[in-house]
Amino acid sequence: MNAEKVIKRDNKYVMHTYARSPLVIERGQGMFAYDPEGNAYLDFTSGIGVNALGFAHPAWVEAVTQQAGKLQHISNLYYTGPCGKLAKKICQRTGLDKVFFGNSGAEANEGAIKCARKYSVTHYGPNRNKVVSLVNSFHGRTLATLTATGQDVFHHDFGPFPENFAYLPVNDLEALQAALDPTVCAVMIELVQGEGGVVALDAGYVHALADLCAKRDILLIVDEVQTGVGRTGTFLACEHYGLHPDIVTLAKGLGGGLPIGAVVVSEKVAETMGPGSHGSTFGGNPVACAGGCAVLDTMDQEFMENVNACAVALREGLAKLPHVVEVSGLGLMVGISLEPGINAAEVRAACEKEGLLVLTAKTRLRLLPPLILRRGDVDAALDVLYKVLSGWQMTDRGAQA
Ligand SMILES: *Cc1c(COP(=O)(O)O)cnc(C)c1O
Asked: Which atom of ligand 1 is nearest to the CA of 252?
């Protein structure tokens, strides 16, 4: 494979909706991605929180290839084993009752909004359909989930938008109380805002919000598309907050690299969604679900202990690095604020040159390593970040910030 050719062809024929790094990745193994020349990159992005088990994990590869050779798809007109199997595992891990499968995070959130509106119409009639979300949130790129996304930068030029969405400033209880009027059917939140800068919500705020919602039978939708499936050190981030929402959405890490999304709901929500109320041609795909089963089966207690130990070591190491102001987020969902004058995107590019893949979120560096990492990988990533940051020429670049 010729990298130059790959880049040229992609630029010519693929819509330019992404600002790609000029790097071609040809294959991956464990914690490492490789370019066509065979250069190795330590991966602290996991494909934006997707490859929970890293690249080509043997249990995942076995499950997916077995299922692909047996039955790759048949449609939701028939029963298949892997779909129900994964749904059962998700219910057991979350304490919720039923699952609807789609193919992405946005679709999961779209489904969650539909469930909330259907529940509300069924029990309270037609005029209670407002969905409240938070400023700086990110819920997806479809029109409804884009509308729920509380960041104007994504909204330009795509209107008109679906009606009856509202945004609340994060951690502001007074604004919340005023907003939860009798027209609201659901509140949608990320417990750690990912794309918004890796910012965890205050526990006090989340509890007050959950209480208010429960009192008014407003459904609480927790978007765990990024935080879920072990990312924060527990299966759901909800566990850190002692939270039991009506609806949880999952996607990124769930399929171990295959496209899948899930709306996970309590019985009372599931009851109102009868045959014909929602659907997806690919949803519940046997191969994607077999991959999901392998991911969940691999995440046992020992696995999660390693996630938490590595998260602690990584956070401690990061806090000691030059020019680091704050380390945010939860578990292996890590945000790094750098001193004013240091551009996170430039640091990201410098790390890439040193063989380490990292992400950014707003003005922060962001790390989402595969959950299979070991202490040696943490140390290796810290070494590269130290090298890059300790040599940073503040005088050259300060003016650009
Ligand atoms: C990534 C993400 C989404 C969107 O997921 P897609 O699979 O890209 O549609 C939604 N919500 C959160 C919190 C996310 O991080």
From this structure: 7
